Amino acid sequence: MQQEHVGRMESRPANIEGAGAVTICDLVRNALRMRPDRIVVGECRGDEVIDMLQAMNTGHDGSMTTIHANSPRDALGRIENMIGMSGIELPLKAVRTNISSAVDIIVQIARMSDGKRRMISVTEIVGMEGDVITMQEIFKFNRQATDNTGRIIGRFSATGIRSKFTDRFRQWGYDLPASLFKPEL
Q1: pLDDT tens across 41-100, in order?
Q2: Can you tell me the distance from the alpha carbon of 50 to that of 136, in angstroms, rounded to the nearest whole number?
Q3: Angle between helical axes of 48-56 and 92-102 (0-180°, round to 10)
Q4: What is the 3-state secondary structure (H, E, C) of 66-130?
Q5: Taking the model in full, what pTM does it have?
Q6: Cα 11 to Cα 135: distance, rounded to the nearest angstrom
Q7: What is the sign, positive or negative, of the torsion defined by CA atoms of 39, 45, 126, 109?
C-alpha cells in the first residue's frame, strides 16, 4: 500500500488456555471505528463476510477482499453460503440485496494449465432482477494458443458491454476511450 496512513491488523488464534483470540470479525469492526477510506480483508472464509459486506455498504468505496470460487457467479454463491453458515437467519432476498449493493466488481484470477495465474474475467454486478443478482462480464481472457514450451498465449479483451462505472471513471479524471468497450473480433 502506497498511501500515507495505512493501518495493518492481523488475526490470531487463541492461546493454549483458549484466550486472546483476535478474529477477522473483530478486526473489521475495529477498522470501521478508525474512519477508513478503504478496508482490505485478505480472505473471507467465514463469519467475517457479514462484517465485510456491512463495511462495503457503509460508504467505504474501494473496499476489497478475496474469496476462492470457480467463477464470479460461484463467488456470490460462496458469500451466500458463508452468511448462511454464520448462524444469522436472513431471508435469501435480503442477503442477495445486501451483496448486490456491496459488491461492484468481481475480478477472477485462475491458474492456467501452464502454471501461471492470469486475470481471466472482470464481471460487474449490475443489481437485482427479482431474487436474482444480475451480472455482466466487461473484460475476459481469450486463450489463443499454446507455444512449444507449453506457455498459454492469449489476450485480455473487452466484451463490448459498457460498464455502469464509465461516468464515475470520468469524474475521477479517467477518460476511457470508446474503443475500449468495442469487442475484438
Answers
A1: 888 888 888 888 888 887 766 788 899 999 999 999 999 999 988 888 889 999 999 999
A2: 24
A3: 50
A4: CCCCCCHHHHHHHHHHHHHHCCCCCCHHHHHHHHHHHCCEEEEEEECCCCCEEEEEEEEEEEEEC
A5: 0.82
A6: 33
A7: positive
